[in-house]
Amino acid sequence: MSFENPTREQIGDILASAGNIAVVGLSDKTDRTSYMVANAMQSRGYRIIPVNPSVDGEILGEKCYHTLADIPEPVDIVNVFRRSEYCADVAREAAAIGAKVLWLQQGIVSKEAADICAEHGMTAIMDRCIKVEEAITMHGRSRM
């Protein structure tokens, strides 16, 4: 069975109800796409939780964690800025912490990660930019 992303309406619902968004692979370098996207989402009112094993301290004013398991609070969306070959492991970690959504950024696809999400009742979104989808789906909508 082939993978299909949720509809735009469903993506809008996911974003409208999102609390914490863990960003795996969030760089502390301001010229990186992950930083720019997370910064934009933060400026739109989303709570960003950085996850990067090589960064100690903070990114975007938020404590950076080395792994998803280190985050001491619930995570709704795990937004992934890692290459496809790492996404299955991230999906397993996301399932282990009870995340609802695994979101692979534009250009990233992993059938194995999508299968892991399906096994754990999680929603998978692949090859989509969360910032772009937020701008499209949330225009005129308010967050819950």
Describe this protein's structure.
By secondary structure, the chain is of the alpha/beta class. Helices cover 35% and strands 17% of the residues. It contains five helices and seven strands; from the N terminus they run αβαββββαβαβα. Strands 2-1-5-6-7 form a five-stranded parallel sheet, with helices on both faces. α1 packs across α5 (130-137) and α3 (84-96) packs parallel to α4 (111-119). The N and C termini lie far apart (33 Å). The model has no long low-confidence stretch (mean pLDDT 95).
Brief write-up:
With 144 residues, this protein is α/β, with parallel strands linked by helices. Helix content is 35%, strand content 17%. A 5-stranded parallel sheet has the order 2-1-5-6-7, sandwiched between helices. It has a two-stranded antiparallel sheet with strand order 3-4.
Rg over CA atoms: 14 Å
Mean pLDDT: 95
Give the low-confidence spans: none
| Number of discrete helical segments | 5
Number of strands: 7
Euclidean distance between termini CA atoms: 33 Å
The biggest beta sheet reads:
5 strands, parallel
Instruction: Give the helix/strand class.
Output: alpha/beta
Give the CA-based shape: globular
H/E element order? HEHEEEEHEHEH
Strand content: 15-25%
Helix content: 25-40%
Biggest sheet: strands side by side, in what order?
A: 2-1-5-6-7
